[in-house]
Amino acid sequence: MSWLIKSSIGRKFIMSISGLFMILFLLFHMSMNLALVFSLEAYDKICELLGANWYAIIGTLVLAAGFAVHIIYAIMLTLQNRKARGKERYESSSKTPTQWSSKNMFILGLSILLFLILHLYQLWYNMQFKELIGDPTAVSKGSELVVGLFQNSWVVLVYLAAFVLLWFHLTHGFWSALHTIGWSNKVWLKRIKVIGNIFATLILIGFSIIPIYLHFAY
């Protein structure tokens, strides 16, 4: 099993698996938060189910581990590629033009990570974490916190910018992950790229609707 850690192929495989895990989480997270558009009460019920419960804690730890693995292996591969290719790290023998997102995946990922830290502080810290440690200032209704947060125009703009960066990250990451784990057929690779673009766009629209709607509806 040492090849998963030491070899380039193994590292790419682990990063791809963790990336697909993150994609599934994004789909779940978007679906959960879209409840805010239809019913604040429904969102509060969901938050209650995912509060300081043992299964929510385990889920949070697994998710954190997945993020950590993805980030660590992304850093390892980036350093490895830059060392191997030097200044010509993006040079390719392929006649197909290299996408901007594929050349800037690390920068995109770093930007998304910085946004994630802000997002966790603004929401998760004030809801689940404070509840876990028994802080009496923990928010009892998640909808009130989220609605209040998105009354600030700068917050809405920051979130929308982050969703656009996520779109670029997903348009390359989606098909690249599937390609790494074995979907290398040329016919299917083209289809996966199209599916990836559609998926990334749906994620962008789904997440973007929430801050825009809450900003203008309340």
3D architecture notes:
The protein has about 220 residues and is mainly alpha-helical. It has one domain (about 5-85, about 100-215): 3 helical TM bundles of succinate and fumarate reductases (Up-down Bundle). The chain contains ten helices and no strands. It has helices at about 5, 10-35, 35-40, 40-50, 55-85, 100-105, 105-130, 140-150, 155-180, 185-215. The N and C termini lie far apart (about 55 Å).
- CATH fold field value: 3 helical TM bundles of succinate and fumarate reductases
What does the average pLDDT come to? 86
Number of DSSP helical runs: 10
Order of helical and strand elements: HHHHHHHHHH
CATH-derived architecture: Up-down Bundle
Outline the low-pLDDT stretches.
89-94
Number of domains: 1
Please specify the SSE layout and strand pairing:
Elements: H1 3-6, H2 8-33, H3 35-38, H4 40-49, H5 54-85, H6 100-103, H7 105-132, H8 142-149, H9 153-180, H10 186-217
Task: Describe the structure concisely for a colleague.
By secondary structure, the chain is mainly α. It is built from ten helices and no strands. It has one domain (3-86, 101-217): 3 helical TM bundles of succinate and fumarate reductases (Up-down Bundle), CATH 1.20.1300.
